Amino acid sequence: MAQSEVSLKSRVKSKPAAKKKNQIGYGIALLALIIVFGWYLSTVATSVALRWMIGIVFGFILQRSRFCFTAAMRDPFLTGSTSLLRAVIIAILVAMIGFSAVQFAAVSAGEAVPGNISPVGIHTLLGGIIFGIGAVIAGGCASGTLMRVGEAYVMNMVALVFFVIGSGFGAYIFGWVKDNIVRSSPAIFLPDVLGWPLAFFGQILVLFGLYWLAFWWDYREV
């Protein structure tokens, strides 16, 4: 019995590893197709070709970085990694500083605050809960779903179909929701409530605190 087990293990170890299929040819063909289609779009309108190029670049970055907002919130509890969460915090920090500069410049010049100050209410809470449940079932948010569709994940292809259906239904009932719920909800602009210094530096301190907490969680002793 022992000898048969040893011989079985030796056969398993000696079995050659499956050779990975070379996909460089597919990549070159796809790149050529992207360039040709981009050239065709440039004959239609330069702006359309530019959007095509930006979409390709963002898609490539999204796929290589495995960027997903749902994964950023899920991974600290599922795998213990906070790398995506920290990347999201940095992205929010950079965007907040940039938008604050634009808005403060407009207000200082006596102009209206640029951008939409969306009302916050029960619709925000319910929307977040519904989206969160869907993201957990689908295994990713909108960006993560699109990225995995490009990688031929069948489950995310199905999720994308229902994502489109749900978005269509949401657009259909949005008029009623806006008239009956959104209009009665307050639109909160933190600089109006806290003042510009406290709103700006307070958000920076909160984001730095969250980043430190995520860093501690990643390197804590279990």
TrEMBL record:
Classification of source organism: Bacteria, Bacillati, Bacillota, Clostridia, Thermosediminibacterales
Domain of life: Bacteria
Annotated signal sequence range: none
Keyword tags: Membrane, Transmembrane, Transmembrane helix
One Pfam family of this chain: Sulf_transp
Residue ranges the record marks as coiled coil: none
Transmembrane spans: 24-42, 48-63, 84-108, 120-141, 153-174, 194-217
Name recorded for this polypeptide: Uncharacterized protein
Record-linked InterPro entries: Sulf_transp_TsuA/YedE (IPR007272)
